[in-house]
Amino acid sequence: EDQVTQSPEALRLQEGESSSLNCSYTVSGLRGLFWYRQDPGKGPEFLFTLYSAGEEKEKERLKATLTKKESFLHITAPKPEDSATYLCAVQASGSEKLVFGKGTKLTVNP
Amino acid sequence: GAGVSQSPSNKVTEKGKDVELRCDPISGHTALYWYRQSLGQGLEFLIYFQGNSAPDKSGLPSDRFSAERTGGSVSTLTIQRTQQEDSAVYLCASSQTPAGYEQYFGPGTRLTVT
Looking at residue A108, what is its pLDDT? Predict the structure, then answer.
């Protein structure tokens, strides 16, 4: 069974304090790994797709990396507006659905 | 362009009643998905449409749940004889093609069964 585990469940940072979120996965052949951001009361907002080990993608203060067993979302010099829940999901080969982790709730204090 | 829209945004219903939730995908997106997000739980896949066909219904939790899609566009998720455990946020997503492409989510419908 495909599984995604995210850690930590919650993370509090001071503005400017860089950190990383972890997404560990087991999947029967990875088609893609996806990162989303979700604000309270809203639907998930797409951030990145990673397809193969060694791949990296960046967007503003966020950088996503992928290995054969896990993905990291690195946040550099975060701002309060980066506060949100970050969701990781995998899509297995031969499947169209996304399997999600439970997310990491990030709070950035000014 | 316009994103995925869902209606209603909130729905309160009594146990035992039927409810219909609607999803309008991004124009031109052929794939459409329904997920459910319960308090403290991750997003849970329900059903996937390619065009008007549903090749994967594996996530529907019981036969009280059904969904259809018409004209390759709008989709309706129907829950019959609602139960309290059906209370959740129901999210719809669409993508250009299924395999490996990002899914874009709507704002969700919050369903409360009293």
Answer: 98
pLDDT, tens digit (0-9, with 9 covering 90-100), for B94-113? 998 766 689 999 999 999 99
> CB–CB of B100 and A45 under 8 A?
no
C-alpha dihedral, B29 to A84 to A33 to B61, nearest 10°:
-70
- Two tokens at B106? 């709507």
Q: Does B103 touch chain A (CB under 8 A)?
A: yes
Contact between chains at B45 and A97 (C-beta distance less than 8 A)? yes
Cβ contact B7:B107 at 8 Å: no
Rounded to 5, what percent of chain B is helix, strand, coil?
5, 50, 45
CB contact under 8 A, B105 and A43: yes
d(CA B54, CA B70): 11
